[in-house]
TrEMBL record:
<dbReference type="InterPro" id="IPR029063">
    <property type="entry name" value="SAM-dependent_MTases_sf"/>
</dbReference>
<keyword id="KW-0489">Methyltransferase</keyword>
<keyword id="KW-0808">Transferase</keyword>
<dbReference type="Pfam" id="PF13489">
    <property type="entry name" value="Methyltransf_23"/>
</dbReference>
<comment type="similarity">
    <text>Belongs to the methyltransferase superfamily. LaeA methyltransferase family.</text>
</comment>
<feature type="region of interest" description="Disordered">
    <location>
        <begin position="1"/>
        <end position="51"/>
    </location>
</feature>
<dbReference type="GO" id="GO:0032259">
    <property type="term" value="P:methylation"/>
</dbReference>
<protein>
    <submittedName>
        <fullName>Methyltransferase domain-containing protein</fullName>
    </submittedName>
</protein>
<dbReference type="GO" id="GO:0008168">
    <property type="term" value="F:methyltransferase activity"/>
</dbReference>
Length: 365
């Protein structure tokens, strides 16, 4: 895995950042707020060239179809969630949930990103380098680049589903982060970010080893992950048989496939084992539905209920047909059963989201 062939340059547009604001009230996020026509003209450019001039040919766009869903073609079969419009909508909805949890921020690590004024004349050659692994639709990378014009943000994914028009300090690349990373010494990163990567990695020790090797001394790695499991504080799980069958079989299938999905609670130890220091984990519990009294959680719960219904529809078809030999009809029945329980007013189901971060020792060159 290597850097984009066209180097990103800093973006000169406005910032709507509230990054790092841990003590603030939850925000309503308007992702379009700072994207006026003039911004688009001056600060966005087409990133198509960086993807096309990479080592990858146009065959990456020859998607594969199965059970009515569309899947990636590059390294076909490696990743079991679809990449179609419905999945992209789910990822962008979940992006909103992640940001609500962080009260508008994009990360928890104490990053010291230079402001635009600190960047070299002309704003070029930004040296705060950010890598977004498994960037999906690119929404996190684009927001990060927008909000930090003096950073350069690279997004990597198996699927070329990111928009062509992106901030000039943002670039996307089709690549496989399970391969050996080939970034040169002068391409080390200040911050490596991954979100919702459960189920995408076979060997996490190797993954974190590569993160550490390609961070600058003192640089941060951060994973933002959800538990692929459902919880309750009362007997709701006992009264949600479809849901419990779903999470149990999903876990079993993903293990059989070789990339377990329900691993969010293991990242902290993995980071420690890989030699990261100052490792911290922040855990959030989100209700599925607006059944709590707390207003902020009520709002999160409303979004999470919609998100989880989309989530069961995207997580189920490939793994259950390929590993458990379900028929498409059985898959559909299971999906509908779980969605019905997520909508039930009688159940108080809970999901868990985690933010885990660690720093590469400053002595580790
Ligand atoms: C659940 S999505 C999360 C997307 C994004 N991080 C977000 O939070 O919106 C996981 C992403 O990882 C990508 N992915 C899976 N395995 C990968 C690999 N080995 N190399 C690069 N990308 C990968 C998938 O294509 C998918 O877009």
């Amino acid at each position: 895995m290597s850097s984009p062939t066209t180097g990103p340059v800093p973006y000169a547009g406005p910032s709507h950042a509230d990054a790092g604001g841990d003590d603030q009230e939850p925000l309503q996020i308007d992702h379009n707020a700072s994207h006026s026509d003039s911004d688009i003209d001056s600060a966005y450019e087409s990133d198509e060239a960086s993807r096309r001039t990479g080592s990858i040919t146009s065959s990456i766009y020859h998607y594969e179809y199965e059970n009515g869903r569309r899947y990636h073609a590059y390294r076909s079969g490696q990743y079991v969630l679809p990449n179609d419009d419905a999945e992209q909508e789910r990822l962008d909805l979940q992006h909103h949930i992640w940001r609500l949890l962080l009260r508008g921020s994009l990360y928890t690590a104490p990053l010291q990103i230079p402001s635009e004024d600190d960047s070299p004349v002309g704003g070029h050659d930004a040296d705060f380098r950010v890598l977004d692994l498994g960037c999906g639709t690119g929404i996190w990378a684009i927001d990060m680049a927008d909000e930090h014009p003096a950073a350069s943000v690279s997004g990597v994914d198996l699927s070329p589903i990111q928009p062509d028009w992106v901030p000039t300090n943002c670039a996307f690349h089709v690549d496989d982060y399970e391969d050996g990373w080939t970034y040169r010494d002068n391409e080390s990163f200040d911050y490596i970010h991954g979100r919702a990567l459960g189920g995408t990695v076979n060997d996490w020790a190797r993954f974190y080893g590569q993160c550490r090797a390609h961070l600058k001394p003192g640089g941060w790695v951060e994973m933002q992950e959800y538990d692929a499991w459902i919880f309750s504080d009362d007997d709701s799980c006992d009264r949600a048989p479809w849901t419990m069958e779903w999470v149990n079989k999903l876990d079993e299938a993903s293990r059989t496939f070789g990339k377990q999905i329900n691993v969010a609670n293991r990242h902290k130890q993995w980071m420690i084992d890989a030699g990261f220091v100052d490792v911290q984990e922040v855990v959030h519990r989100i209700p599925i539905g607006p059944w709590t009294k707390d207003e902020a959680l009520k709002e999160l719960g409303r979004f999470e209920r919609v998100h989880m219904q989309m989530s069961v529809a995207s997580h189920t078809p490939a793994l259950f047909t390929r590993v458990h030999s379900y028929t498409p009809m059985q898959v559909q029945l299971l999906i509908e059963g779980v969605k019905r329980e997520f909508r039930s007013k009688d159940l108080r189901l809970i999901t868990i989201y985690r933010f885990i971060r660690g720093r590469k020792p400053t002595t580790d060159l």
